[in-house]
Amino acid sequence: MRSFCFAFLVVAAASWWPSAYADAPTNVSLPDLANSFWVDSGLKMPSKELVDAVNRAKLPVLDAFGHRREIILMSIGSEFAFQRLFDVFLSNLQNITFPGANGVQDNLARHVVVNVMTPGSAEKCNVLAAKYSCYCVSFANDAFTLGNFHVFSNDFYGIGFTKTATILDGLTLGVDVLFLDADQVFFRNPLPYLLAREADILVSGDCHNHGDATPMERLPPINNNIGFVYFRPTAMTTRAIYNWAMWLRNIARKGEKPWDQHTFAPAVEWVSSHVSVRHLSMAMLHSDLFPYFCMGPCGCDLRGVPYFHNGRLPARPRGADCDPDLMREWYNYHMPCAGDMNVKSNLMEEYVRMYLRVTGPINSRSAPMTVLS
């Protein structure tokens, strides 16, 4: 049986943040919350606001196989996430720069679409949009509280409905979707790496030595982490995400707990096992290149580790930096399992400073990327 990392510490909207609303519970049942994302004909269609945002945000690029792709970065945020976390997240993405098709400098923050999931939070997101040129879309559900999304509360499980709907909306508009939780920072542009892989779905995962260049029918039998997932807009990818959303709804309607992290791999693999790797393929990204805090403070060391074995989790000595040889290869560092959003934001800034000390400027090790008009 798969074991799974505690994803409640992955999602920015689920983290604890003190406020006057901190103990305000949701007033809706899980079945009603699940049903609020659906209409008689299925999941709600993308709003005009989201369609417009995707059309403005999409980034046309050439992949490693000579194919044109159009990519957007998508995220979701609650009231607390816009107090500080998203500012750190977007500021970092603004530093991942590259030449646009017209030769003018572009950056990843300009290609982010944020679905705002709590009522009354759109203005906070719009302030950040004006600062970083990202796009905010109202996806507010009145069932969500403005307070803390307590772990395993109905609000917490509602994150899964928001996430699957967000990803599905992007895919049905025909663009590649890189879905990101906001509690992570980037040191180099991940898109050239992703564009050199052929799998339809790429997801981060625990410290383990496996390949990610060969498309597979199933993921390695270890923890995956859905705070960093890349999707190509194929028919079967879209079908798999719809299947994932339906699983969550059916679990909730039975009165059980629909955890998005726990259901992602089985829901997607249920489809891939039926249609074969030819029609739906996936791979788990190299964990030493895409580390996260659940592994430990210095990520994953796979040097000398046999194929398909667990890697080492190096400690970070007090007052010292992580191993420069490991850090040099990092694309990002994700902060699940790190604490509340204040702690996450501090860690994100700390890891940027550490990278600058040890490796050099953010984005200095990014591979080139061909942006199309």
Automatic annotation (TrEMBL):
Main localization of the protein described in the UniProt heading: Golgi
Record's signal peptide: 1-22
Keywords: Cell wall biogenesis/degradation, Glycosyltransferase, Golgi apparatus, Signal, Signal-anchor, Transferase, Transmembrane
Residue ranges of domain Nucleotide-diphospho-sugar transferase in the record: 109-294
Membrane topology: Single-pass type II membrane protein
Keyword Transmembrane carried by entry: yes
EC class name: transferase
Compartment(s): Golgi apparatus membrane
Gene Ontology CC, one term: Golgi membrane
Flavoprotein recorded as keyword: no
Pfam families (UniProt xref): Nucleotid_trans
GO BP of this protein: cell wall organization
Transmembrane segments: none
Enzyme Commission number: 2.4.2.-
Highest taxon of source: Eukaryota
MF terms (GO), sorted A to Z: glycosyltransferase activity
Family note: Belongs to the glycosyltransferase 77 family.
UniProt name for this protein: Glycosyltransferase
